From TrEMBL, chain A:
Residues 1-20 have a biased composition (Basic residues). InterPro entries: ExoRNase_PH_dom1 (IPR001247), ExoRNase_PH_dom2 (IPR015847), ExoRNase_PH_dom2_sf (IPR036345), Exosome_comp_Rrp42_subfam (IPR050590), PNPase/RNase_PH_dom_sf (IPR027408), Ribosomal_Su5_D2-typ_SF (IPR020568), Rrp45 (IPR033100). Residues 1-39 are annotated as: Disordered. PANTHER family: EXOSOME COMPLEX COMPONENT RRP45, EXOSOME COMPLEX EXONUCLEASE RIBOSOMAL RNA PROCESSING PROTEIN. This is Exosome complex component RRP45. The keyword Electron transport does not apply. GO terms for cellular component: cytoplasmic exosome (RNase complex); nuclear exosome (RNase complex); nucleolus. The keyword Cytoplasm applies. Residues 83-214, 242-311 form the Exoribonuclease phosphorolytic domain. One of its GO terms (biological process) is U4 snRNA 3'-end processing. GO terms for molecular function: mRNA 3'-UTR AU-rich region binding.
From TrEMBL, chain B:
This is Exosome non-catalytic core subunit rrp40. Keywords: Exosome, RNA-binding. One of its GO terms (cellular component) is nuclear exosome (RNase complex). It comes from the Eukaryota. One of its GO terms (biological process) is TRAMP-dependent tRNA surveillance pathway. Residues 179-190 have a biased composition (Polar residues). Signal peptide: none annotated.
From TrEMBL, chain C:
Coiled coil: none annotated. It comes from Orbilia javanica. Residues 9-131 form the Exoribonuclease phosphorolytic domain. This is Exosome non-catalytic core subunit rrp46. InterPro entries: ExoRNase_PH_dom1 (IPR001247), PNPase/RNase_PH_dom_sf (IPR027408), Ribosomal_Su5_D2-typ_SF (IPR020568), RNase_PH (IPR050080). PANTHER family: EXOSOME COMPLEX COMPONENT, EXOSOME COMPLEX COMPONENT RRP46. One of its GO terms (molecular function) is RNA binding. The lineage of its organism: Eukaryota, Fungi, Dikarya, Ascomycota, Pezizomycotina. The gene is RRP46. Transmembrane segments: none annotated. It is found in: Nucleus. Belongs to the RNase PH family. One of its GO terms (biological process) is nuclear mRNA surveillance. Its main location: nucleus.
């Protein structure tokens, strides 16, 4: 995921896929070996020369985190499988959400415009997700120089949300072959303390569910977009809410098994040896599983993770639904007040 | 409440503000013939700069804060008190640094993330009471990469390639990070440090006893903000409410590095985590910015983390 | 001061991990900006200056990817900051400013974004403790000719440019009004828009003026320009707003920050 400093070669680099279980345990960095590691090391040196360095994690922190995991403890006092508190807040506009997981903070904004559809898909609108990271989240992210995390994140959101057909693209069609809605989700990464993937996914789904399309009337060639004040805008046709749950593999428990933690912090991500993202919806349907290299895990663990993800997603789904309902109530309350005020003014 | 605050706290100055309080100190009276005292020149601390372009107001603040003017001491000193989060190294600061790599002449260490690395030249690294330095290859401590070194800032100059640190005596040096380190020397080391920077915070003798018995506890290095660092360094004043509240629940030892790193040790890992969480949550809530200096918030956090 | 509709909503250090950050909401246009400042950091060798800190300003749009508009905005901010920051204090380092447009009435309108961006950036530099020569403040002024009655403005948001030597009555009747920090609707009816930025001492830091083609309900022809004496009076009033009210806003925002 992130650039690994050379001193911790046992922690794996997310993008390298050629990892065998035996090689992941090697801890001697200077050992010349015919295994794939030597190539990776060269590559890492190359990266570190061109990218701002991630802060070095001290040996004391590393030892402490790994020792604590043996006793099922995490530095922030959380359980191995618990998420940080998820805070959702909405802006004045529809389709704007601010998601916080501890110190990680991501904004998502949905916007829509009317365009001509692609000629090969005349019945479908379009949906794009933009995930450019900048140094606001962490000085190690540079503008115009996407990190591996950038690529992983956009690929995972693409797989999780777009390809799982969460959004009914045909419902975005206005006039076949002529006019369709083009939706885009802009994600802004404000603060990075680990688990950007799950946070970004929650932000995108919540923003899509919060968004309202203005009502349109078509008469012949003319398309009229009714402003929000004139006609109540309509929600998008979201078929289901796929939610990512990322498992980070690091350390060992008392039996020597690799520990898998949920909602890793930046520190835990820097120390992890592998990770896996499972995308599930509240019905327990798996939309996507991604495990690109890293420490090898038992097939059994994978099943356990998938089941746990399904369980977690139920809770997250509920949390999103509650937040959306609360926001709806708050908005309507404002509208009612406004109506009442208007009325009393008229009476006078 | 607002009125009492404005009475208590001196006015905030902004960069470029004229400071009339400094004017009398700029042109000190000629040597007093009766007492034969020399004219005292004003020393500028952090936050103030000489501005040659404005001769009428030669000393100007360059950051926001309050003017801290000390005239009662031998040499009057003026500075701007402020609480930026960024660490600016200054000479003699005790710091906790992470070893990045070792070259032929020096240890290259990380002072703060994303800033240029600092160096500890081997001739600045004292390894025994006789004052032997680590210059000779034989005597050089073999430190693993990622080791934490307690050092002192010796040279800072903006035009120097890197900040230079030193390990001036045995109170400094590598801070144990291995669980296998035997307990006796480490305790001794800590008690040595106590005289300089480390603080052993406990609510009685039980604390020390439990620390001596620890078997495989490892200490933790916590990163905190600059205001929090200042608070923890001032353990008898600013930091006292929080430190005593935590210590009442968990006896612990700490070494504060001015670069925003704190070494924390306690009897068990669970206890270390409790201390770490108390400090971290206090810092993240910016409780030091509360009107009461974080007294209420500190108690609340300690109660939440450690139980009533 | 705080109850005035002209005072922005300011939240200092909303981001826990940057050296200094600020969220700023313009009270009238509801434009919300979030800026973070980090520094002095390690600079990339190619950007290193032997005697000065390198200032990097990145403006990230709320919608879409950064384009010409964002480049323009960041270069305007950069040149303003260059005259405020004492770059010789930290040679061979990087001072990194990132501004995120969080919410805007019109994500494409440069004048509506510039003032909040500048003010928010200056506040986050202050809170980050970056060495500065002085502080500045920016105000956006829109000139409307023959304003329609429907223009909704807050109290104190509108003023007229008094002409020297003429009595009070005449200025009252003047059909030209200036609106401070206009929203998109008012800007749409404006003849010209001026973003003026002054330092605390009254030096001009940045003036960005433009003719608005919509111009007052079509009554004024496009490309007519504006009267220079009117403009000087406008700049004078802008200077007063920046140096008095703006600096007061900064002081008040920082007043409850503890220092020790």
């Amino acid at each position: 995921m992130r650039l690994k400093p050379l001193p911790h070669p046992s922690t794996n680099h997310h993008r390298h896929h050629h990892r065998t279980p035996s090689s992941s345990r090697i801890t001697n960095p200077s050992r010349p070996s015919p295994n794939p590691r030597s190539r990776e090391t060269v590559q890492l040196v190359h990266y570190s020369a061109t990218m701002p360095k991630e802060p070095e994690i001290s040996l004391a922190e590393k030892t402490f985190v790994l020792e604590a995991l043996k006793q099922n403890l995490r530095v922030d006092g959380r359980g191995i499988h618990s998420f940080r508190e998820i805070e959702l807040s909405f802006g004045d506009d529809y389709g704007f959400v601010d998601v916080r997981l501890g110190k990680t903070r991501v904004l998502a904004r949905i916007s829509a415009e009317i365009v001509k559809p692609r000629s090969d898909r005349p019945f479908e609108g379009t949906f794009t997700i933009s995930t450019e990271m900048g140094p606001m989240a962490s000085p190690s992210f540079e503008v115009g120089r996407p990190t591996d995390l950038d690529h992983t994140l956009s690929r995972l959101l693409e797989k999780s949300i777009r390809r799982s057909t969460a959004l009914d693209l045909e419902s975005l069609c206005i006039v076949t072959g002529q006019r369709v809605w083009s939706l885009r989700a802009d994600l802004h990464f404000l603060s990075h303390d680990g688990n950007l993937i799950d946070t970004a996914c929650i932000a995108t789904i919540t923003a899509l569910a919060h968004f309202r399309l203005p009502v349109i009337t078509v008469s012949g060639e003319d398309i009229t977009i009714h402003p929000v004040t004139e006609r109540v805008p309509v929600p998008l046709s979201l078929l289901h809410w796929p939610i990512c749950v990322t498992f980070s593999f690091l350390g060992e428990d008392e039996d020597g098994e690799v520990v898998c933690v949920l909602d890793a912090t930046a520190q835990e991500e820097a120390l992890r040896e592998g990770d896996m993202t499972v995308t599930v919806n509240k019905n327990g349907e798996v939309c996507q599983i991604s495990k690109s290299g890293g420490v090898a895990v038992e097939a059994e663990t994978l099943m356990k993770c998938a089941r746990m993800a399904a369980e977690k997603v139920k809770g997250i789904d509920k949390l999103i639904a509650t937040a959306l309902r609360d926001d709806e109530v708050a908005r309507n309350k404002g509208n009612l007040d406004w109506l009442k005020e208007g009325k009393s003014e008229n009476e006078r | 409440m607002a009125t009492t605050m404005s009475l208590d706290s001196p006015e905030i100055v902004l960069p470029g503000d004229y400071l009339p309080q400094l004017s009398p100190l700029l042109n000190p009276p000629q040597t007093d013939p009766e007492t034969n005292t020399k004219p005292r020149s004003l020393r500028l601390g952090p936050g103030l700069t000489l501005s040659p372009s404005t001769p009428s107001t030669p000393i100007l603040p360059y950051r926001y804060g309050t003017l801290n003017l000390l005239t009662h001491i031998k040499r009057p000193t003026a500075s701007i008190l402020s609480t930026p989060r960024h660490y600016h190294p200054s000479t003699n600061d005790p710091v906790l640094v992470t070893l990045l790599r070792t070259t032929a002449e020096q240890f290259i260490v990380q002072l703060t993330p994303y800033t240029p690395p600092a160096i500890i030249p081997f001739e600045n690294y004292i390894i025994n009471n006789a004052g032997t330095t680590a210059s000779a290859r034989k005597s050089r401590p073999n430190l693993p990469i990622g080791a934490t070194i307690y050092a002192r800032v010796s040279v800072v100059h903006k035009h120097l390639e890197a900040v230079e640190l030193s390990v001036p005596d045995l109170n400094y040096g590598e801070v144990i990070s291995q669980k296998n380190t035997s307990t006796t020397p480490s305790n001794q080391k800590n008690s040595n440090k106590k005289e300089s920077q480390s603080t052993s915070v406990s609510s009685g003798t039980t604390g020390a006893a439990s620390l001596a018995n620890r078997a495989e506890v490892t200490p933790y290095i916590l990163s905190i903000s600059q205001p929090m660092t200042k608070l923890l360094s001032a353990e008898e004043t600013l930091g006292k409410p929080l430190l005593s509240a935590v210590a009442a629940k968990v006896p612990f030892e700490m070494i504060v590095g001015r670069n925003g790193r704190v070494w924390i040790d306690a009897a068990t890992q669970k206890e270390v985590i409790k201390v770490v969480r108390c400090f971290k949550e206090f810092d993240e809530a910016e409780a030091w910015n509360d009107e009461d200096g974080g007294l209420v918030k500190g108690r609340e956090i300690v109660g939440k983390v450690c139980g009533k | 001061m705080t109850s005035s509709p002209l005072v922005p909503e300011i939240s200092l250090n909303p981001l826990p991990q940057s050296d200094g950050s600020c969220q700023y909401t313009c009270p009238t246009s509801r434009t919300t900006i979030l800026t973070s400042v980090n520094g002095p950091l390690e600079v990339r060798p190619k950007d290193e200056l032997p005697n000065h800190a390198t200032i990097e300003v990145i403006v990230k749009p709320g919608i879409g990817v950064a384009g010409v508009r964002e480049t323009r905005l960041s270069s305007l901010i950069h040149s303003t900051l260059k005259s405020l920051i004492l770059t010789n204090h930290h040679p061979r380092t990087l001072i990194q400013v990132v501004a995120q447009i969080v919410q805007a009435e019109d994500h494409t309108s440069l004048p509506l974004l510039l003032t909040p961006l500048l003010n928010c950036t200056i506040l986050s530099l202050l809170i980050a403790g970056i060495p500065m020569r002085t502080v500045g403040w920016s105000v956006h002024l829109a000139v409307l000719q023959h304003p329609p009655k429907t223009v909704k403005t807050a109290e104190g948001q509108v003023f007229r440019l008094g002409r020297g030597g003429e009595d009070e009555m005449e200025t009252e009747e003047s059909e030209q009004i200036v609106v401070r920090n206009p929203n998109g609707e008012i800007l749409g009816q404006a003849e010209s828009s001026h973003t003026v930025t002054f330092s605390k001492e009254g030096e001009v830091l940045l003036i960005e003026s433009m003719e608005c083609s919509q111009g007052s309900g079509g009554q004024s022809a496009d490309g007519q320009g504006w009267d220079i004496s009117d403009f000087l009076r406008l700049a004078e009033e802008g200077k007063r707003i920046c140096c008095e009210e703006g600096v007061e806003i900064i002081r008040e925002a920082l007043a409850d920050r503890k220092v020790f």
